[in-house]
Amino acid sequence: MYRLARSALFALDPEKAHALTLTSLARTASLNAQLFGRRVPASPRRVMGLDFPNPVGLAAGLDKDGRCVDGLGALGFGFLEIGTVTPHPQPGNPRPRVFRLPEAGALINRLGFNNDGVEALLERLAGRRYRGILGINIGKNATTPLERAADDYLWALERVYPQADYVTVNISSPNTVGLRDLQAGEALEALLADLKAAQQRLADQDGRYVPLAVKVAPDLDAAALQTMADSFRRAGVDAVIATNTTLSRPGVAGHPLAAEQGGLSGASMAAMANEVIAALAGALAGEIPIIGVGGIDSGEAARAKLAAGASLVQMYTGLIYRGPGLVAECARALREPVSPANATTR
Ligand SMILES: Cc1cc2nc3c(=O)[nH]c(=O)nc-3n(C[C@H](O)[C@H](O)[C@H](O)COP(=O)(O)O)c2cc1C
After folding, report:
1. Where along the chain is FMN bound (predicted)?
2. Are 264 and 249 contacting, i.e. CB atoms less than 8 angstroms apart?
């Protein structure tokens, strides 16, 4: 059934198709709960101190503004991550800025955190019916100088804290100039220290501890991953989300759109994300859970994320190519125990 919808959607510009999909998901939530949500088997996990009904989540970026939380929740996800949201609204980069590479099951995007800002997101969330686990992913505005980035993250954290089950600190988008510099050295240490102090203060104030996850890029070598993992352990980060989109171009050599600027996502980056997850799992030594994301397009690909060391998974691009049935397929595949020995790497 999704094949039909997909050919109609793929006839449209990717951003138009995206807006149309969100609108129709919002209107058909109860039907989707019957068609899709009901088919997702229970597969409970406790991660970051939270109880997930199943380990399959929606990755950030699909619903940046929290417009469709009820409609997406009806698809049966074990958790939803909305955002990236920035303190102030911003338009993002000029269009076109999203490209489909269907031959590789991939997308390239250079959206650049187009979003309505934190306040609009919070207003929308006030009316939600979805009561499942909600992560809110925060970022910095493009106009905020990098040396003031912490101000944006701290302000956003404070505002979203009461509405979030966990908050993700996105320092790995390739489409905001300089953002990835926050993943290393002094800048990372200082940002994490500020955020953890704010989290503690907010937890005392609210009487509720909201875990902090950090989302990382796949374009890091083993040494950089090790150093970053050490910083995460020292700071007491609650989870790591690996990975964001890649600036490299695995599996799309020669494709006419491969040279478009932006981050590549989807099936052709799965193995790369799995390598990063495995390296982080080794470096974190079980102290911090990993949420694995990047190229999941089947139950088998979801199992490979757990085999690499993830405790939960998320998906975005696979949904565009495979449709909402992918959620149940992955949740079913992840019900069986996964051990590194019997899993494939992709
Ligand atoms: C169009 C698009 C927009 C995205 N926007 C965000 C974002 O705002 N924040 C974020 O943390 N990740 C964003 N991502 C990255 C995804 O959350 C995910 O990490 C990445 O796409 C790899 O997973 P996938 O192969 O399942 O898509 C975006 C991805 C795509 C394709």
Report:
1. 60-64, 84, 137, 170, 215, 243, 266, 295, 316-317
2. yes
274 is in an annotated binding site: no
Dihedrals phi, psi of 164, to nearest 5 degrees: -105, 145
Closest CA to 238 of 276, 187, 291: 291
Q: What is the pLDDT of residue 111?
A: 98
Q: Give catalytic status of residue 173 as yes or no.
A: yes
Per-residue b or e along 184-194, where b marks 16 or more CB atoms closer than 10 Å to that residue's CB: eeebbeebbeb
| Ligand 1, residues at Cβ distance < 6 Å | 59-61, 64, 84, 98, 107, 109, 111, 137, 170, 173, 215, 244-245, 265-266, 293-296, 315-318
Any idea which of 22-26, 259-263, 265-269 has the lowest mean pLDDT? 22-26
What backbone torsions phi and psi does residue 41 show, to the nearest 5 degrees? Answer: -70, 150
Q: What is the pLDDT of residues 144-200, one digit of tens each?
A: 999 999 999 999 999 999 999 999 999 999 999 999 999 999 999 999 999 999 999
Report pLDDT for 341. 43
Nearest to 293 by CA among 121, 73, 55, 134: 55
Q: What distances in angstroms separate CA 60 from CA 68, 85, 145, 170, one per listed residue?
A: 13, 10, 23, 10
Query: Phi and psi (nearest 5°) for 35?
Result: -75, -40
Question: Any residues with CB less than 8 A from the CB of 262 and at least 6 apart, and which?
Answer: 97, 99, 108, 109, 110, 111, 174, 175, 245
For residue 54, the model assigns a pLDDT of 98
Q: What residue has token string 């912490």? A: 150
| Residue with CA nearest ligand 1 atom 22 | 294
